[in-house]
């Protein structure tokens, strides 16, 4: 697993969901904002306590979660 030093998990913050640096800003919120067309600058204007690296890591974390691993299963007819 890639080190995600800005992605935190705390059962007392947002129910343990992936958050940015212990804040109540979830990775899913950032991914949703980007998916809906917001730029990094617009997100930081709306959430000034975020940094560009927070947004980059949120996207990298989401990409890492979405990776598909293919397994070559040996086929043996019965």
Topology:
Blueprint: E1 7-8, E2 19-20, H1 27-35, H2 40-46, H3 52-66
Antiparallel strand pairs: 1-2
Query: Which CATH architecture would you pick?
Result: Orthogonal Bundle
Mean pLDDT: 90
H/I helix tally: 3
Reported for the largest beta sheet, the result is: 2 strands, antiparallel
Low-confidence parts, pLDDT < 50 over ≥5 residues?
Answer: none
Q: Determine the CATH superfamily.
A: Winged helix-like DNA-binding domain superfamily/Winged helix DNA-binding domain
User: Structural class per helix/strand content?
Assistant: mainly alpha
Oligomerization category of the chains in this entry: single chain
Describe this structure as you would to a colleague.
The chain has 78 residues and is mainly α. Helix content is 40%, strand content 5%. It has 3 helices and 2 strands. It has a two-stranded antiparallel ribbon. The longest helix is centred in the C-terminal third of the chain and has 15 residues, at 52-66. The N and C termini lie far apart (38 Å). The mean pLDDT is 90.
Summary?
This protein has about 80 residues and is mostly helical. It has helices at about 25-35, 40-45, 50-65, and strands at about 5-10, 20.
């Amino acid at each position: 697993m890639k080190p995600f030093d800005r992605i935190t998990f705390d059962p007392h913050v947002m129910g343990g969901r992936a958050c940015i640096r212990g804040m109540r800003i979830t990775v899913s919120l950032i991914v949703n904002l980007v998916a809906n067309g917001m730029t990094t600058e617009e997100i930081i204007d709306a959430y000034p306590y975020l940094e560009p690296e927070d947004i980059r890591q949120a996207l990298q974390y989401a990409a890492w979660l979405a990776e598909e691993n293919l397994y070559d299963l040996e086929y043996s007819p019965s």
